[in-house]
Amino acid sequence: MKTYRSRFPRLAFALVGVVLSLAPSARAQGGGGGGGNPGGGGINPGGGGINPGGGGIIVPPGGGGVIVPPGGGGVNPGGGGGGVVITPGQPVVVTQAGLLVGDTQGATVVVAGQAAGGQGGAGQTTGTTYAWTISGGRIVGSATNQAVTFTADGAGTVTLAVAVTTSAGTTNATSNVTAISAAAAGTITAPATAAATAAGAGAGAVTISASLPAAQAGDRTFTWSVTGDAAIASGQRTEAITVRPGTAGLKEINCAVRLQNLVTVNLRSFLFVTGTGAPATVNVVGGSGGGTWPAGSRVDIFANAPAAGQVFDRWTGSAADLAILGAGAIAPFLAHAVVTVPTTAATLTATYKPAPAWTPTTTTAFNPQTAQGQTAPVSTTLVSYVPANPQGLVFLLHDTGG
Predict the structure, then answer these.
(1) Is the pLDDT of residue 104 over 70?
(2) Average pLDDT in the 217-238 region?
(3) What is the pLDDT of residues 18-77, one digit of tens each?
(4) Looking at residue 364, what DSSP letter applies?
(5) In 3-state terms, the chain is what percent helix, strand and coil (to 5)?
(6) Contact at 8 Å (CB) between 297 and 341?
(7) pLDDT above 90 for 322
(8) pLDDT per position as a tens digit, 329-345
(9) H-run or E-run covering 322
(10) Please, which residues have CB within 8 angstroms of residue 253's CB and are 6 or more apart in sequence?
(11) How far apart are CA 90 and CA 171, in angstroms?
């Protein structure tokens, strides 16, 4: 046995494994941001805590609630001090405090003395029934499981209510969730194009600006990121940044906007970084994406959808024209390609060929299952086709339920 002493001078306890020795008649007590719940729940001395006994979850300092389910328990509503004892059989709705309009979110009801159920009612207690209602939103799927999924109708407050019926009678619990519209985050204002600049260039390098609506009374925070070799030059954690575009290509400017410390809206803007040479034209015949850009730009081209009975074959053109597709051997055979604009005009033509005739092979009783040395009958049927002399195979795989 080891004896530990709390930083609260009068609180000492002996810990053996995960058993906490405390007086069973004690009640939750206020403290410096915590509280104790010894009646089968736990101790939360400084915003953190220990939950032996009936088990539980402790939320660190700064907010949130603590549910101590089996064997009694308690709630520690935040870092402000004190605790509230939950009597056995009292239901509590557990869900996140914020929700984006249009998203879905889960909620479950925990009853002291019962195990928490999973999404869709997994772990539901025998003989217990649940009846959920909602205002300001709608429940997606069943409203009679221990756990439900819900969404918001619009910005405002969503109120969840549940009636839990056992042999002892019916008890009720409610929870309010703040629904926030993603539109509150605004949109990124940034140019659509910018000239390339060398990655890692100094203070004199070309930069562009990107901005969002500013915070109002500290209601939001900003976390910016950029893709490729673009770089944030200044302004991280504020509503406006400057960006060095980097080399030619398509880049993304992203910002995760945290609203009211409840929900996060992920915003993005595309930046087409052009080359720095004289303008040149790429002509695309039988496809799209052609145009005139500064030499060195990286642009996407697409072959048109093939006619019935046809498939895309390859891009054709002069050796110099095909060079803008890149050096890879497979490059001319990609219906969607990224080309580098040359210093002189180039033309690429999409060509097509008849789709090869093929007959699938059907395999019945595919992937039989074996258990304890016995092969169980299965009804799985596999339809497949592998062309003659294949150069490679692509397998499409997924997990159960995928």
Answers:
(1) yes
(2) 96
(3) 332 333 333 333 334 434 444 444 444 444 444 444 444 444 444 444 444 444 444 444
(4) S
(5) 5, 45, 50
(6) yes
(7) yes
(8) 999 999 999 999 999 99
(9) helix 319-323
(10) 188, 190, 210, 224, 226, 230, 243, 268, 269, 270, 271
(11) 7
Residue with tokens 């204002």: 189
DSSP label of 330: T
pLDDT value for 167: 87
Measured CA to CA in angstroms, residue 324 lies from 2, 94, 328 at distances of 73, 57, 11
Among 74, 79, 50, 51, smallest CA distance to 64 is for 79
- 346 forms beta bridges with 282
Contact 194, 273 (CB under 8 A): yes
Residue pair 140/60 in contact (Cβ under 8 Å)? The answer is no
Q: Which residues pair with 316 in a beta bridge?
A: 349
Instruction: Give whole-number Cα distances, 339 to 252, 329, 332, 342, 393, in Å.
Output: 19, 14, 11, 9, 27
Q: Write the DSSP assignment of 310-337 as a string of letters.
A: EEEEEEE--HHHHHTT-S-TTGGG-SEE
Q: How far apart are the first and last CA of the chain?
A: 49
pLDDT value at position 125? Answer: 55
Instruction: Determine the residue type at 371.
Output: A
pLDDT at 327: 87
| pLDDT over threshold 50, residue 231 | yes
Q: Quote the pLDDT of residue 88.
A: 60
Q: Name the region of 237 (left: φ>0; alpha: ψ -120 to 50; beta: rest).
A: left
> How do strand 361-363 and strand 382-384 relate by DSSP bridges?
antiparallel
Tokens of 69: 């389910």
**Residue 49: closest CA among 31, 72, 71:** 31
pLDDT value at residue 198: 63
Q: What b-and-e string marks burial along 180-207, b requiring 16 or more CB atoms within 10 Å of the CB? A: bbbebbbebebeeebebbeeeeeeeebb
Using the predicted structure, report yes or no on whether residue 260 has a pLDDT greater than 60. Answer: yes
